[in-house]
Each structure stands twice: as structure tokens, then as C-alpha cells.
UniProtKB/TrEMBL annotation:
This is 4-hydroxy-3-methylbut-2-en-1-yl diphosphate synthase (flavodoxin). Residues 296-397 form the IspG C-terminal domain. It catalyses: (2E)-4-hydroxy-3-methylbut-2-enyl diphosphate + oxidized [flavodoxin] + H2O + 2 H(+) = 2-C-methyl-D-erythritol 2,4-cyclic diphosphate + reduced [flavodoxin]. Converts 2C-methyl-D-erythritol 2,4-cyclodiphosphate (ME-2,4cPP) into 1-hydroxy-2-methyl-2-(E)-butenyl 4-diphosphate. One of its GO terms (biological process) is terpenoid biosynthetic process. It comes from the Bacteria. [4Fe-4S] cluster binds at residues 299, 302, 345, 352. It is an enzyme of class 1 (oxidoreductase). Residues 13-281 form the IspG TIM-barrel domain. Belongs to the IspG family.
Amino acid sequence: MAGPAQRRRSVGVNVGGVMVGGDAPVVVQSMTNTDTADIEATVRQVAQLARAGSEIVRITVDRDESAAAVPHIRERLLQMGVDVPLVGDFHYIGHKLLTDHPACAEALAKYRINPGNVGFKAKRDTQFTTLIELALKYDKPVRIGVNWGSLDEELLTRLMDENAVSRTPLSAAAVQREAIIQSALLSAQRAEEIGLGRDKILLSTKVSDVQHLIAVYQDLAARCDYALHLGLTEAGMGSKGIVASSAALGILLQQGIGDTIRISLTPEPGGDRTTEVKVAQELLQTMGFRQFLPVVAACPGCGRTTSTTFQTLAKDIQDHLNTSMPEWRERYPGVEALSVAVMGCIVNGPGESKHANIGISLPGTGESPAAPVFVDGQKVATLRGPDVADQFKQMVADYIEKKFGSGRRDAAE
Ligand code: SF4
């Protein structure tokens, strides 16, 4: 079976106890959208994101009140048993906030800085140096996060001018990509000159166009061995954001590029911020890089399924697995690898069900009202009656107990 390209070699970075890069699996990150100065709201959202599976959470640190809140947020989270590393997102005045708020500098597990707005003209170098010296002082890694929405204008102008007189000029888009990459690499080089180790540096080069993102990361990955954070910036809302992010990140991950990812979805008003975590997990799991939740394969339905029985059962099973997972993770090691199939009729139902650990093929329109169940490729039962869903859920529970619980231990003894 075809698989991903060999993972690009990168220098591992320890972010508050979570390894990013090196031999570590691809890490899922997220970011809050609360006012960090609002301690209650930020603690609540960080906890939600962490419990959804975010392994690192980034928070905005934009002013004194936010910086002052950070150590309290960290403390409250620890009291709640949430030990997720917090990353501070700094723009314009990060050097000042980290200098004036040592408890904030200490509480954060990583600093994210944007070389496009660290400072301007003469102040840029001194403020960048201050930030790196603070990272050294507090022994924290730094993500140098370039974003094409806030690209270093001086650098871009210089490269555009050089390109204009070049014998083989590049397209404007290619020059812009080169500016993004150079901004990241030159900043990383400068950070190393100041004394920051390669194992303390991560890079990201985010753009909002899928093809540009793929091109810029392919180039960046070939030119350095820093750990890379992937994300399609401003991906958008709903299915658009999910598809665009998955297309871009999926291709890069398949090529072995990327050590940590974030899906930058815009939530619907009042929407669930944890969706970005679930999408990141599903992307990694779908591509076979990591396992977070049991997989439910369900057919889309067609004219052979005129009732909603199988849709209801597929959702019922998926919800049951999701809500049971926190407990199952403790009781059934490895249960994340479970695969379940819920299929709508005889056409693909038995075949797909045989590929899953446990699968059910519901009767389509005109078929006899019986639902064969397959376990590890073998037909083991035929369910009938109005409580097929409950019967099948019980069979799933029995299977999990046998395969991942004490049944498995008994068999091993
Ligand atoms: S398995 Fe049956 S119901 Fe489901 S999509 Fe295929 S033909 Fe339609």
C-alpha cells in the first residue's frame, strides 16, 4: 500500500514537555479567541481545546492586562488538571510585554513572534534581539511565524527591486514566496547568532492560498531542518476552511513535511472553537499518521436507502464512540484503532463491513428486514427488530471489551 514520503528530518523542540519535530508524531495545536485579559473565559476555552485533544494552545498576548493574566491562567489550568503548554502570540510589543511581565515570560511554554512586525527600521533589530535574549533567559523555544499578511516590507521591496533588474526575473508571486522564506530563515539565523539553539526554534510561513502554501513550505522544508508548524492562514468558515486546510496540509504531510499543525477555522458566531482540533485530528487520522478516535465508515446513502435508519445508526454509533472515548481510553488501551462500518444496503454493505473490525449492513429498500453483522471479516449474527441500533451498540461494546479489555489480557495469558 502506498504511504507518505519519508518524514523530513527536523530538529526536535521541547515545547513545555511536548516534543515537536525530530521523531515525535505530528502535534495538534489550536488557538483561543478569547480576550486573554479575561482570565475566566480564557481558562474555560483553553481547557475545552485541551480536552478536545489540542496538545499545545496559543493565546494572544497583546497588552499589559493580557500579559498580567497569563500566569493566573496557567495556575488555574493546573488546578483543573489541565497541563497543556501555552504559547504566547506576540506582535509589535512582545519585547516590552515579556520584559515587564516576568511571570508571563515564565508561565508560557513558547513565544511566537512575527518578524514582519517585531519592530520597524532601526528598532527592529534591537527588539528582535531583546525577544531572543528573553527566550534564552527563560529557556523557552520561539516560533518565528511569518505571515504574508504582515510580511517584512523592506525585505519584499528589496527582493522585488533585485528581481526587476534580473536577467531571469521571477513572477511577483514567486518573489513574494522567496521573501516569506527569507524572512523566516534570516530571522532564525539571527536568533542562532544571538545564542538560541536550533532545538529552540520552529518556523512557519503561512499564506491563505493553497497552492502558494504548498509551494512555500516545500521550498522552506528543502532549505532548512528547523521544526515546521503548518497552517493555512485565514482558511475561512465551515466546509470551505476545512477543505482548503485539509487539501494544503494533507499534501504537505504526505510529502513528509510538517511537525505540528493548526487548522485556522473561523468559527460560526457562537460556534464551537474545538472544531479546529477535531478537524486536525481527523486529518491526521484519515491519512494514517496518528490515531485519536475509532473510525466509523458509513456509506453516503442513495436511492436504495429511503429511510433514515442507517443515517441515524451511523450518527448514534459515532456519538456513542465519541462520548465513551474518555473512559475507554483509560480502560481499553489501543481502542483508538477500532474501526466500525455502518452501511446502507447489500451492494457495498457486507464488503465494507468485512474490512472493519465490526460492521453492520442495514437492509436497503426492498431488502428483507435483516442486518448482518461482521466481526473481523466473518459474519457472526443477523440482527432484526426495532432495536437493531441497541443490539449493535452492545455488540460493539462486547467487541471492545474482548479486543482491548480484560478479554484481551485473558487471551494473552
Ligand atoms: S452501500 Fe448501498 S445504500 Fe450505501 S451508498 Fe452504496 S448502494 Fe447506496
